[in-house]
Design goal:
globular; binds S-adenosylmethionine; single chain; two-stranded antiparallel sheet; 10 helices; Rossmann fold
Length: about 270
């Protein structure tokens, strides 16, 4: 029976398969450098799709108060274990597909200094306007909204899977939505790949785009991490290329993920 939420099936292996890999660490390090610029110690921040809580832990250790949220009970359980004893981090369930009016810790007078979501949680939505409107009421004017989003034109994926004859996977971002089903027991979940322009338009009423950067232009997508990390020379060259050439703003649409930052517009 397909009744396990898709991301629950990933929770136990997620850190081993992604967070603790050499490439996963490099990508997360790039994101955390941006998060540190946006959210100084003392900020109060909402995280969407926190997964196993790695970024919440990083920020909380730096003095940022984080409300880490996710839809998946199994991911939340791992995050709670990791964040246990961390006074600045709180973990709550929040499904981006059914955003509640009332939410703990938020009111007209106590808004967040910012919101972020890393590595693809926003790709589980088909329409980003409801999220942008919901966030507009919960982020203070001048506050930041920052997202790591799987891009529709990633160069690596069609190349890697095309060369191996897997055309279906090679073309999945162009033919979106893709179907994500990590195990036979997991419920199939649809994945959408918004362009930078599309996301910017959805957020435009209340948020001004201020920054875009590629994340992993020359690095493989996570399904190829294992194969590439087994080849140290290839891995070394790709890391070198990505560090030297993969940071150019113009390459953001061709990376596995792009990182996009907005600023909440003043009200009235
Ligand atoms: C690839 S993981 C990224 C996790 C984490 N942000 C990180 O940096 O490792 C995507 C996360 O999005 C969450 N997610 C998927 N759909 C969601 C939804 N509708 N609402 C909230 N979270 C969702 C999943 O449960 C999963 O934890």
């Amino acid at each position: 029976m397909n009744n396990q939420p898709a991301f629950d099936a990933l929770a136990a292996s997620y850190d081993r398969a992604f967070t603790e890999t050499i490439i996963g660490r490099r990508l997360r390090w790039q994101v955390q450098a941006r998060l540190e610029r946006l959210f100084p110690p003392g900020s109060r921040v909402l995280e969407l799709g926190c997964g196993t809580g790695e970024d919440a832990l990083h920020l909380a250790r730096r003095g940022v108060r984080v409300l880490a949220t996710d839809a998946s009970p199994a991911m939340l359980a791992v995050a709670r274990g990791k964040l246990e004893g961390c006074a600045l981090a709180q973990v709550e369930q929040l499904d981006l597909q059914s955003l509640p009016q009332a939410f703990p810790g938020v009111s007209e007078t106590a808004r967040f200094d910012g919101v972020f979501s890393n590595f693809g949680a926003l790709n589980c939505l088909q329409d980003w306007q409801p999220l942008a409107a919901w966030l507009a009421a919960r982020i203070r004017p001048g506050g930041a909204a920052a997202f790591g989003v799987m891009s529709p034109l990633c160069l690596w994926e069609p190349l890697w899977h095309g060369l191996r004859g897997d055309w279906r996977t090679a073309a999945r971002r162009w033919r979106q939505p893709a179907v994500f089903q990590p195990t036979p027991e997991a419920e199939p979940t649809l994945i959408y790949y918004p362009s930078i322009r599309r996301l910017t338009r959805a957020f435009a009423p209340a948020f001004r785009r201020i920054y875009v950067q590629p994340l992993g232009v020359f690095l493989p997508t996570s399904d190829a991490f294992g194969a590439v990390e087994k080849r140290p020379r290839l891995l070394g060259r790709l890391l070198w290329l990505d560090e030297r050439l993969g940071q150019a703003r113009l390459l953001a649409p061709f990376a596995d993920h792009y990182w996009i930052e907005f600023q909440r517009r003043p009200e009235g």
